[in-house]
Structure formats: C-alpha cells, structure tokens
Inverse folding.
C-alpha cells in the first residue's frame, strides 16, 4: 500500500500540474476531509488485514463488499445521483453475491 501511494504521488502531481491553484484552494477549504481520508483509508485496510487474522477469510471478504452497496445507496438517497433504479438493482446484485460468498 505504501509503495502504491509513493507511485501515485508523482503521477497525480503531473496530472494536476496545470491546476495547482485549484489544488491549493481545495486543500485550504477541505483540509479536514483530506486529513480524515488520509487517516481512515489506510486504517480501513489495516482493519481488514486484522480481521482476516481473527476470522475466516470467507466471512471477512463478503463483509468488505458491503461498502460497495452502502456507497451506491448513499449516492441514490443522499446525493440524488442519476438512474436510481439501476443503482439499487446493482446493489441488489452485489448483495446476492455477498450472500453467495458467505454461504
């Protein structure tokens, strides 16, 4: 994970090189969210690795996929994203896959 992040830094820096003023402005206004994401994202990965050591992978892997469903439903009900029926249907397909994995 650290290696991937170290590769992403120069890649994304080059990608936004013409928009540094917008990046700085975003950093000034959203620094709390950026900091929270920077801490919580690796922490979630560490928690999954810890859970795999404690519980069988067959239980942990399906549980990880629940986040996909939650984010999709968040998009439908909170963000009011387009095509809500498709998003809910896709969430149901993922839930069915989770059930099959856990079964």
């Amino acid at each position: 994970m650290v290696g991937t992040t170290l590769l992403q830094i120069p890649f994304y820096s080059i990608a936004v090189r013409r928009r540094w003023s917008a990046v700085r402005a975003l950093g000034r206004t959203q620094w709390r969210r950026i900091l929270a994401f920077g801490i919580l994202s690796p922490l979630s990965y560490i928690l999954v690795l810890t859970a795999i050591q404690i519980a069988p992978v067959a239980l942990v892997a399906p549980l990880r996929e629940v986040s996909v469903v939650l984010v999709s439903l968040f998009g439908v009900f909170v963000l009011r994203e387009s095509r809500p029926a498709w998003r809910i249907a896709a969430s149901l397909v993922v839930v069915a896959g989770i059930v099959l994995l856990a079964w």
